[in-house]
Amino acid sequence: MTAPAAIARSPQRFAIAPALLPWCGLAVLTLLCLLLKTELPWLVNFPKEWTLPLASYINAVTDVVVAVIQPGFRALSALLDAPMRGARLALAWLPWPAVMLAVAALALKSSGERLAIFALATLAYILLAGYWPQSMNTLALVLLAVPISTVLGFLLGVLGYARPRWRPVLLGALDLMQTVPAFAYLIPLLLLFGFGPVVGLIASAIYATPPMVRNTMLGLDRVPAAISEAGLMSGCTRRQQFLQVEVPTALPQLLVGFNQTTMAALSMVIVAAIIGGFEDIGWEVLSSMRKAEFGQSILSGLVIALLAILIDRLTIGFAKAPETGPTRAMRWMTPRRLALWLAVALALAVVIRLAMPDATLLPQTGLRMQMGAVNEWLLGLVRDYAWFFNGVRNAVLYCLLLPLRVGISGSATPAMWGFALPPPVLAGYVVLVLALAALAMRAFGWRGGLAVLAAGLVLYTGFLDLPWPVFILAVALLAGQVGGPRLGLFALVGFGLILVNGLWPQLVQSLYLCTLAVLLCLLAGGALGTWAAHSDRVSHILKPICDALQTMPQFVFLIPALMFFKVGEFTALIAIMLYAIVPPIRYVEHGLRHVRADVVEAVEQMGATPMQTLLQAKLPLALPVVMLGLNQTIMAALSMLAIAALVGTRDLGQAVYVALGKADAGMGLIAGLSIAFLAILADRLIQAAVARSAAASQ
Q: How is the protein disposed in the membrane (predicted)?
């Protein structure tokens, strides 16, 4: 090697050494912990006597604060109860023909004839299924929660736009609101407002506020400077410029925020039913699931899914113009004609009520009354094919879930797998991991080799048997090197607080369950997204399926999983995957479809096969978009933890749910913040990794 070449290579060698040195020290610590964990069991199982009673302190403070401020919140609850009852009575008074006419007119104006037909079919199904009164009660909650969330979100978004210094605090609060499970903040709401429909209304309004805040700030930030300057040059005051120039320009983005706010409020209907206790669709789904009446569960769950899709299409149609332009029916339905149709619908309602004041106009026996035979058929189906469903569940449980939880060392026992691995096989496993690490190091550098070694260690020991000092230091070191010292300190403090509060076993359960769900979603969703990116037909088939999965409330995903696989971690895994599989499909397809065409053509002209073009050109270029999909997949998986707790998991979500049942505000808050910490840490890590990758590629 010549002297200039040696000089050129020496900085790279010395640049890697400082980053690698802490990992070498951590490897030594890991080896010591693995050798000593039998003699020092506290390295794996954090002693209970070392935990801090932080939850008790929070409960003591909460009791004092609640006693002082509870009367004011109870008064607010009584104040909100009147419009809640009024909205329910008004929707119950409206006859179904008038409602169908009004909704069809709105759908025709929003997106054209196809949505109008879908709206009529959806409302007809709700009517024939026998869930019309319950659906009106659900709409009453949504119709009250959405304006509250919209106004509050708009004001907070304007505050973040006008006061940039306050934006980091506001964004941090929004991150917490969107990542803390709804069950966690239901506890203080129950203590302050009591039990009833108003608590569900307030919980829905709180949960649905962040999307409006983010879209308001985004829309106002994107107002072109030329438009703002034109308003100033026209002599507008600051208030006139804001109300007459900036807000109208940002209106499309504000309407997108309204759409997301509406869907978030609708997704809370079952959670609101848990604490609301009134007859709506959420309560029907929850009660039928508790009774194992799968026919009613599917029937009522389909009502929520159809309502969610209909409301999503209605609101997004007003927010965005169709890609192909307005249809003939949309052009015909002018605002004046829309107002006329709505007036006709109201007049029809008045005429019907005056002519038949006591008539319900509802089917005497809806489909829900005929679900007994369907329940028996479904139970018979599950019973007759129990061998198949149990086989699938046991295969995944013993081949995937257990190895991640207790590792190969804990699974390869006569009690679990029916055999124990002999020492030569274990030695072969070590050699295989080292060989794969060497290959990864050669292809991706020392970080790739280190990742393979870490995966091999976790697969051998499992999450449950991994020493907690090693795990905490490894994640903190990774966060520090990827995102900087502040992120590393955030990881260290966060995991430390979870540890000393006695939630480490629940954290481990959450980590291995979400890790497996995310990996399977990336494999299945990535394959489907790649297929859709290369086939327009597949893309058209997957689009409505993804739209339906994305709009359905989280509880609905529990129904099929619970019906076929009963309670347990496998059922939770299925529900999490159904909810989290959409982001990898959408982002992989979007990333691959928007790779620069000239780069792909250059690679193909060099003689690359389609597979080589995909793996060596398209995927690397689409990696930033794919990483965003990974981020959203992790967020979705973590958000399902508290919902999946209803089917028997023992993770942080279960801790939140148990705390809700006991009205334990301290433990509920700590467990909820633990889930939020995992979500925020994963988000910051992925954002930092994408930023580093983009900086390195420039």
A: Multi-pass membrane protein
Q: What is the length of the chain? A: 698
Which residues have CB under 8 Å from 417's CB, separation 6+? 398, 411
Closest CA to 573 of 623, 520, 614: 520
How far is residue 514's CA from residue 652's CA, in Å, rounded to a whole number? 11
* CB-neighbour burial class of residue 291 (10 A; exposed 0-12, middle 13-18, buried 19+): exposed
Q: At residue 219, what is the residue type? A: G
Which distant-in-sequence residues (6+ apart) come within 8 Å of 554 by Cβ? Answer: 267, 270, 575, 579, 639, 640, 643
Query: What's 568's DSSP letter?
Result: S
Beta strands in 585-638 (DSSP E): none
| Angle at which helices 504-533 and 665-697 cross, to 10° | 40
The values of phi and psi at residue 640, to 5°, are -90, -5
For the record, the structure tokens of 610 come out as 């389609």
Using a 10 angstrom Cβ sphere, with 0-12 exposed, 13-18 middle and 19 or more buried, the burial of residue 7 is: exposed
CA distance 73 to 468: 42
Average pLDDT in the chain: 81
User: Which tokens hold the place of 388?
Assistant: 């198949």
Separation of alpha carbons 164 and 523, rounded Å: 40
Query: 179 vs 581, which has greater pLDDT?
Result: 581
d(CA 580, CA 696): 30
* pLDDT score for 277: 58
The answer to whether residue 379 scores a pLDDT higher than 70 is yes
Whether residue 317 contacts residue 78, with contact meaning beta carbons closer than 8 Å, is answered with no
Asked if 210 contacts 171 with a C-beta cutoff of 8 angstroms, the reply is: no
Contact 246, 184 (CB under 8 A): no
Neighbouring CB atoms inside 10 A of 542's CB total 19
Give pLDDT, residue 5. 45
Residue type, 172: G
529 close to 694: Cβ distance less than 8 angstroms: no
pTM for the model: 0.81
The C-alpha atoms of residue 445 and residue 8 are separated, in whole angstroms, by 18
Distance CA 112, CA 101 (A): 14
Residues contacting 556, CB < 8 A, separation 6+: 285, 301, 304, 305
User: Residue 359, Cβ neighbours under 10 Å: how many?
Assistant: 10
Q: Would you tell me how many other CB atoms lie within 10 Å of the CB of residue 231?
A: 20
User: Per residue in 297-347, pLDDT tens?
Assistant: 778 778 888 888 888 888 887 776 555 556 666 677 777 877 888 888 888
Consecutive H or E run containing 622? helix 619-639
Other beta carbons within 10 angstroms of residue 623's beta carbon come to 17
Tokens 């291995």, residue located: 512
Listed in order, strand segments (DSSP E) in 229-379 are none
What's the pLDDT tens digit per position in 429-481?
A: 888 888 888 888 887 777 788 888 888 888 888 888 888 998 999 999 999 88
Residue type for position 566 = K
| Residue showing tokens 């055999």 | 419
Tokens linked to 385: 């094919």
Tokens of 651: 């993770």
d(CA 473, CA 15): 22
Rounded CA Rg of the chain: 28
**Of all residues in the chain, what percent carry a pLDDT higher than 70?**
90
**Is residue 653 within 8 Å of residue 644, measured between CB atoms?**
yes
